[in-house]
Inverse folding.
């Protein structure tokens, strides 16, 4: 540790103005005196010139520099000329560097609070823009699809196979787990009620219908939204941050065709298959509960399902799964391409991809249910 | 000040898993010296820097910082040592969720006991040193690559470290900014007594600032020349070094 006294200043009148004597250690660790009073005193006296005496100055660091920068700035503003040449050369040079590039006009930002009404307005405009962006994206997708039908879409089939593998087989484990549990929960909740009427066997109808028409597709879609939709948003978002998307565009390759299409197709193909699998797993989950809680044998249970759950219900579920697949892929890719230029916006893109997917899934499910009602299936 | 050199590298071998990048590196960096690491791209300069700042453990050999063997001391002591480093990463490595001001404020708030007003003053001073006065409230994604680099430099200097590591600081800078950067490096050395270790390709800058240097070769995987660059230019007979320093092919 140094043996110098701590930072001190003294102000004296000199022939042409004021002389500021700095002495001791001017370092952050050893403490910098409060210089506001000094600054005020100098400005009030308003000397013609300000000179410095640094004979007694020992060690110094950015603590002294920040003070001097502040001092010189206020002197310049108040037309007090500072005799920088009376400072040690090292300090002079650092000051020169600090003032070498003047503050660019208008670079500083006014941080203003926003009134509540303006905030509400901004959020509304933002939401509106979001949805019209989404519509534009869907439009581009449509044209991409037309190109694809004409065999002119530019993407790599290896990408498609990779995406199918990532979306399909790799998801089987989690789908198995969730579907079996959902089947068991459905059966369990139903069992308690049905037992009161001695109608235990209808548990098969309940689970079969529930899984086939609704829960199979829905749970698969929710899992895929969290698993694959978020991944799409993060992948495309990172590519956006690294300017990889720009690189594609400047080569005249549409990111929609090259990146979005394989992903969309992959989900659209795998989701119905995953849904069939989930239906089956859910029904098995129901069978386990029926066998253990209600003494319904596997044979009875499956016969009941075969007899009373027509195939059309499975068809509707599988159709839904295909639609959900398109929605999840669209939401994920859309949020990814919309992503900003920083790492934190990638996280935001992934989050909003999942939220958007789930909202779209539920809305689509409601719409399809009403439509089925209308046409009577 | 101690008589030991600031950095002492002995028999350092660097590898990514089994792939050796450079081996048998021996050199010292004295206090208050500007030391340049040269070599073609991909020869392991950034990797060497990662070893010097304690991010990567040597495959074999030792790194001494002020006489302390960086990888033979407990983690806490190592953290203590490396927190005194100022490091500018090749891509700037600014934290993207924080403004430039917050980026510089973080080390100040963590390792110094300045009050918020002083922190703000240091931020604006450091930003003005790198020509970014007034950009406190910008996010890294809102400024250009060269500006990001300079902001990274301001963050590296936040705590007035006594040793600074710069990975290609002038890459992406315009000639004027690059010139100001050289000036800044010399001032860090002369006024603040800092040691500066730089990875650089910028010949003009190398000849202006460097007190000493080493030259890494990707084929021999070791140092093929060492010394002040101006002297290397005159005395080196190795064609690879000559090519690099005279920009011929
Ligand atoms: N994370 C990594 N894993 C494996 N090899 C790497 C990794 N990072 C860099 N390398 C290899 O190490 C070598 C040196 O890289 P680097 O130190 O970045 O070079 P430069 O001299 O251009 O800074 C390169 O050949 C690169 O392929
Ligand atoms: Mg590098």
């Amino acid at each position: 540790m140094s043996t110098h006294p701590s930072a001190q200043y003294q102000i004296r009148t000199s022939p042409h103005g004021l002389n500021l004597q700095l002495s001791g250690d001017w370092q952050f660790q050893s403490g910098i005196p409060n210089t506001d009073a000094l600054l005020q005193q100098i400005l009030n006296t308003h000397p013609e010139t300000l000179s410095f005496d640094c004979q007694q100055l020992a060690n110094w660091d950015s603590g002294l520099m920040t003070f001097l920068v502040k001092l010189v700035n206020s002197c310049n503003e108040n037309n007090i000329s500072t005799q920088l040449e009376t400072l040690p050369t090292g300090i002079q040079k650092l000051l020169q560097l600090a003032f070498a590039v003047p503050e660019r006009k208008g670079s500083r930002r006014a941080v203003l609070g926003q009134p509540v009404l303006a905030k509400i307005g901004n959020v509304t405009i933002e939401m509106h823009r979001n949805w019209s962006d989404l519509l534009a994206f869907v439009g581009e997708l449509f044209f991409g699809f037309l190109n694809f039908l004409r065999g002119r879409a530019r993407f790599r089939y290896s990408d498609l196979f990779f995406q199918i593998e990532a979306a399909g087989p790799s998801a089987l484990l989690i789908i198995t787990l969730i579907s079996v549990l959902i089947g068991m929960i459905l059966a369990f909740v139903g069992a308690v009620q049905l037992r009161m009427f001695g109608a235990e066997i209808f548990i098969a109808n309940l689970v079969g219908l529930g899984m086939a028409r609704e829960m199979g597709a829905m749970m698969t879609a929710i899992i895929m939204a969290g698993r694959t939709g978020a991944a799409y948003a993060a992948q495309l978002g990172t590519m956006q941050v690294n300017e990889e998307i720009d690189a594609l565009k400047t080569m005249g390759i549409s990111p929609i065709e090259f990146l979005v299409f394989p992903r969309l197709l992959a989900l659209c193909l795998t989701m119905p298959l995953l849904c069939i699998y989930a239906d089956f797993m859910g029904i098995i989950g129901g069978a386990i509960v029926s066998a253990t809680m209600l003494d319904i044998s596997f044979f009875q249970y499956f016969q009941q399902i075969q007899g009373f759950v027509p195939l059309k219900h499975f068809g509707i579920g599988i159709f839904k799964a295909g639609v959900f697949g398109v929605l999840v892929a669209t939401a994920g890719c859309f949020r990814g391409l919309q992503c900003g230029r920083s790492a934190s916006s990638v996280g935001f893109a992934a989050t909003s991809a999942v939220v958007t997917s789930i909202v779209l899934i539920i809305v689509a499910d409601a719409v399809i249910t009403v439509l089925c009602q209308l046409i009577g299936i | 000040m101690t008589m030991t050199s600031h950095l002492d590298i002995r028999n350092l071998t660097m590898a990514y898993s089994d792939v050796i990048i450079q081996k048998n590196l021996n050199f010292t960096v004295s206090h208050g010296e500007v030391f340049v690491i040269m070599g073609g791209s991909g020869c392991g300069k950034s990797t060497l820097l990662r070893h010097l700042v304690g991010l990567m453990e040597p495959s074999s050999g030792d790194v001494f910082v002020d006489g302390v063997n960086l990888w033979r001391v407990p983690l806490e002591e190592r953290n203590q040592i490396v927190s005194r480093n100022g490091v500018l990463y090749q891509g700037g490595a600014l934290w993207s969720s924080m403004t430039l001001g917050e980026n510089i404020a973080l080390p100040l708030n963590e390792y110094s006991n300045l009050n918020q007003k002083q922190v703000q003053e240091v931020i604006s001073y450091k930003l003005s040193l790198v020509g970014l006065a007034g950009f406190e409230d910008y996010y890294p994604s809102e400024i250009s690559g060269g500006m990001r680099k300079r902001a990274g430099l301001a963050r590296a200097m936040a705590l007035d470290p006594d040793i600074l590591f710069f990975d290609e600081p002038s890459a992406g800078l315009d000639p004027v900014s690059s010139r100001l950067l050289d000036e800044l490096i010399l001032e860090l050395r002369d006024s603040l007594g800092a040691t500066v270790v730089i990875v650089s390709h910028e010949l003009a800058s190398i000849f202006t600032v460097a007190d000493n240097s080493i030259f890494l070769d990707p084929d021999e995987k070791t140092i093929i020349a060492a010394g002040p660059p101006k002297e290397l230019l005159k005395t080196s007979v190795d064609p690879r070094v000559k090519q690099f320093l005279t920009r011929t092919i």
In short: Chain B has two domains: 5-84+163-246, 100-160. Chain B has a mean pLDDT of 89.
